[in-house]
Protein 1
Amino acid sequence: MKTLSQRDKRTLVLTAAAAVLIVGYFMVLEPALASYNALRSERDRLHSRLERLGRVQSDLGAARFGQMSRHVPVFDMPQAAAEQGVLFRDALTRQLEQAGIQVRTLQLRDSRTQRRDGYAVLAVQCQGRCTYRQIVQLLAAMKQNPYYVGIEKLSLRVDTRNREQMSFELTVFTYAN
């Protein structure tokens, strides 16, 4: 058996290395690249779909915001306590007058020591006489008061002599800085 020359050994080593590279490319690298390209195209397809859904969502969001703005109460950001209390009391007084409710007492209760979410709570207590229709009309219009936050107390007592009339006690509150 003949020994291989140095040149033949180099050729064999280079041929074996080339064979390993070619087999490695077709067995490992090409499937990995194909998988990578498939995943990349899937990602691009999903990304475009997500953008389309986002556009549809924003269009629906604008429509929903328009619908909600008719149902959600109007609210102005709280002012200083003294100013907010007067504004709230005056707006509530106008609403009581528009509903035709006779108010006996209307009192602004300032409880600055009681705080919710960093704001002082101001309450207006009122007592008087009304009909059921008038109190329902007031409650329906209450959300139009820009200073109104919520109702703390509402009690109704029907007059035993005149069943159409009732006395009420209402406490509504707002926030102030």
Note: The chain is about 55% helix and 30% strand.
Protein 2
Amino acid sequence: MRNSYKTTRRSRRVVWILLLALLLTVLAYCASFWWFSRQTISEIVPDGTIAIIRLAPDRNTWPIIEKNLLNIPLITGKSLTISDLVGFAQGEVAIYIQNDGNMSVGIRGSLNTLPRDELDAQGIVVREIGPNHLFLANQIMPFSTTQLKRGWNLPNIPFMFETKLLGQILILNDPLIRGDIYGDGNNLEISLPKSDLTALPWKTIPEDVFGIMSTPFLTNFSVHSNLPVYPLIEEFDQNLASFTRIFEQNIELVMLSNDEDGVGFLISSYQDENDPEMHKKLIKLSAALHSPRISDFVLSDNSTAQEISVDPAAISVEELVIAGVPWSRVLVDPTHYLFSGYDRGRLVISNREALVRFWLTGEDNSLREAPCGGTSGFMNVDSWVGLSANNLHTRNWQIAFPITEAYSSVGIRNSLFDTKILLCN
């Protein structure tokens, strides 16, 4: 009996010692993680920085970061990629994005370990702006200090879970927006604070629809904000540009398609039906702006000048029924119409009857699932870039599209605790 009691006490002691050792190991691992991943190079940033992508690579995450960011240039106009940093970055890496789209890099490292000849050959400017804090850019630029504090994250546990925490994205709005970046070597996931996202009303979408953006993602990043979501959308079509500016904060979603006639769009906006003629006025004005009248007249010095005028009253509106719902349309040019109407408390405007019909019925001749798990929005990057090369009037989308080198689609969805932006191959 006494021997059995001693054996039990000894077994309990062994168990407690093992538990204590395990606890100390976990604490030591967490402490080392938080120390080595501390934020040291995001406190001094180039002037005009609006976002920072901060990576804290270790031996477990370097291979994943390389796979996820392999072909993305880190400095505007240069070929430097994340793989080039492996030999001399000694921990933290920060990618700075400025309000003009310019990108540069900060690393924790030493001047002695830099491949100076290779960097010189690319025309990369190197500057030491603090102890073991190096800045690499395409030009000399001024710096400013931020008040960023490091957020708390759970450390990656070796040999567990294919998806790893790779770093953070910091959007320098007021207030600061902070998101965690996860990756598995193929896809990236950015976890942002949860928003009250509008879920798309369809499980499947037409084959030629390459993008849908819904609120509040649109309204949070409006034309007055740092990130150019609206300019990206607007530059496909001047009518679309006009409507996004008119509706602005009331937009529910924007849908984009690509067919043999170019880019199609549909905008839905939360609007009261106090003025049942409003949608007709809008499409008449848009059609008039699309085809202004040009008149020549002679000035007092006998020189000739031109007067440009628009007359919405001269535009005729045709009434029709689509899927049992009354709609209006105006002729914009010899082959294209603008459609408008009210449906379920929304004012809807489109330049494609097929998109209007899909909006009303959810039916189309060719349907597919939204790419990249996007339940509140998505974008087919390949289609967007192909159209951008042919249609964009300016190139103010550099901030959003370094990802075009590595990913084919983007999805947005809400989960229980956060809002996720998914980058997929």
Note: The longest helix spans residues 2-36.
Protein 3
Amino acid sequence: MTEPDYHGSLRSALEAFASVCRAFTGQAERTEQAGHSGPAVSGGAGASAVAADAVLKALLETILPFDPLRFPHHRLAHCQTLFAARLAPAHAWRKSLSAFNAAEAFPNLTDSTLAQERRALEAYPANTPELVRKQLERKRCQDEKLLDFFLTKHGPTVRPFTDMDLSARRDYFWLWSQSGFSLKRRFHRACKGAILAAACAAPELRAYPDQAGGRQART
């Protein structure tokens, strides 16, 4: 039986996720590449990288059905390394994960991503500027309601994704699949797809279900 092309699937999934991340960071990334210095951020780029790595680790734990008693931490770290090493540009995906981590900002979009949503609506001739404005506001209100729904279960304080317990993380990640903004829904699909593909590309992760079930691992 032919072995599935796990690494080919991983490349495709990471390309899709990188595309969404570039769209998410859009204008901010082009501005920084042009040498424009924006507002100062505490800790600089190194702190942002550490924060993004923490978000990636939390996403892996959220999306992949690991039993920590049976799945050693170093294997999860290997999956994290595999994911991060192959995903480029690093600036785009790290900035996107940092934005995802800020749960209190869930109903909002950056100016660049909001402009993309606006252009998509303006592509329809029947959408007048006023109608576009109302549709964007309706999308934002939908996301506010989603966040309120999340807080009725996990509130009242909105915490960063990395500070949530596993149940809250899974519910918060689900919010992104229900967002009124298409770019957030794309982020959810692409992020989940990339992480699952990274897991399938790591032999020890493919063998995990057999090990956990007490069966002999596949080779």
Note: The radius of gyration is 19 Å.
